[in-house]
């Protein structure tokens, strides 16, 4: 809903700005780990956010060969490049620019994501969303969402909003989840534009600025957030959401990934690709994987 003079929009403020850590995963793929384990309880239900982007094939050509998951969901958002998905359930999909892969590992899945290019730029995100204890052993599931299937709208100010999950300004996204109620928005803000994103008061939320242009976050004295930084948003009880402003005169639009979700408030026990609630459940996951039962 747009801000009006009679009903000022109350924005969340920035609690802290986080710089990601250089890391590698899969077969040597270079990436930036933005949401790390120390932030898992603060940003519950989100477990991890990786940002990857490189013009050098050597940074991504090894891809992510077969590897297991249990107990959570992976969301892969492709900005540039092409990767092929295959899994133990028999799914095959192509990640291309603008596409989204939403995979529920549930009780267990083994999958791979391998580049389908030998040169050019590869860029995107992978977000891990926790599953509630009641859902961790559910059957695995997979959705390959083509670029045209991601709902989007453009505001009067020219802000382009791709609604990957949840709802924004009356537009329902490609994915809905009843327990965690995630909101995932891919935003493009032209120079000088403003966007007010409504967020449920109880949701934990953060945003990641990418591209070349910073954004200002919050009402009143807004906090500038430069590219390749994550802003953790305060849980202000009286806030309606978060206000984003792109600086006037910017040479390029600002790009923002905005993420929010309802916390599960459950114990988190993680080791590598398995996320459960107890150490005993983790040990069972390893035993199942080693015994060939995890994805059976």
Record the strand order, biggest sheet.
Answer: 1-22-19-24-17-14-13
Mean pLDDT: 95
Estimate what percentage of residues fall within beta strands.
over 45%
User: Pairing-aware structural class of the strands and helices?
Assistant: mainly beta
The amount of helix comes to under 10%
Descriptive account of the structure:
- By secondary structure, this protein is mainly beta.
- Helices cover 4% and strands 47% of the residues.
- The chain has one helix spanning 279-290; strands at residues 14-19, 21-25, 29-35, 46-54, 64-69, 72-80, 83-87, 92-95, 100-104, 109-115, 122-130, 141-145, 152-154, 160-165, 167-168, 171-172, 183-189, 194-198, 204-210, 215-217, 223-225, 229-233, 241-245, 254-261, 269-271, 274-276.
- It has a seven-stranded antiparallel β-sheet with strand order 1-22-19-24-17-14-13, with no helix packed on it. A seven-stranded antiparallel β-sheet has the order 2-3-4-11-6-9-12, with no helix packed on it.
- Strand 15 and strand 16 (171-172) form a beta hairpin.
- The longest helix has 12 residues, at 279-290.
- The protein is globular and about 60 Å long.
């Amino acid at each position: 809903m747009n801000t009006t003079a009679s009903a000022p929009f109350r924005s969340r403020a920035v609690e802290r700005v986080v710089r990601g850590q250089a890391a590698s995963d899969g077969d040597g793929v270079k990436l930036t780990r933005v949401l790390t384990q120390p932030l898992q309880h603060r940003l519950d239900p989100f477990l991890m956010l990786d940002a990857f982007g490189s013009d050098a094939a050597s940074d991504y050509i090894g891809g992510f060969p077969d590897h297991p998951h249990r107990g959570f969901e992976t969301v892969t958002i492709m900005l540039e490049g092409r990767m092929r998905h295959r899994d133990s359930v028999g799914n095959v999909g192509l990640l291309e620019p603008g596409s989204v892969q939403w995979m529920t590992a549930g009780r267990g899945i083994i999958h791979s994501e391998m580049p389908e290019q030998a040169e050019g730029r590869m860029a995107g995100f992978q977000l891990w969303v926790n599953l509630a204890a009641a859902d961790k052993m559910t059957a695995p599931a997979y959705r390959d969402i083509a670029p045209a299937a991601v709902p989007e709208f453009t505001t009067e100010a020219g802000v382009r909003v791709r609604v990957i999950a949840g709802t924004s300004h009356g537009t329902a996204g490609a994915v809905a989840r009843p327990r965690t109620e995630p909101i995932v928005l891919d935003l493009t803000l032209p120079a000088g534009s403003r966007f007010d994103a409504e967020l449920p008061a109880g949701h934990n939320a953060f945003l990641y600025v990418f591209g070349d242009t910073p954004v200002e976050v919050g009402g009143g004295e807004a906090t500038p957030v430069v590219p390749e930084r994550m802003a953790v948003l305060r849980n202000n009880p009286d806030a309606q959401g978060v206000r984003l402003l792109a600086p006037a005169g910017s040479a390029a639009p600002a790009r923002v990934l905005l993420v929010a979700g309802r916390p599960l408030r459950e114990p988190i026990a993680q080791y590598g690709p398995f996320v459960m609630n107890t150490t005993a459940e983790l040990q069972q996951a390893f035993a199942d994987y080693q015994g060939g039962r995890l994805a059976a």
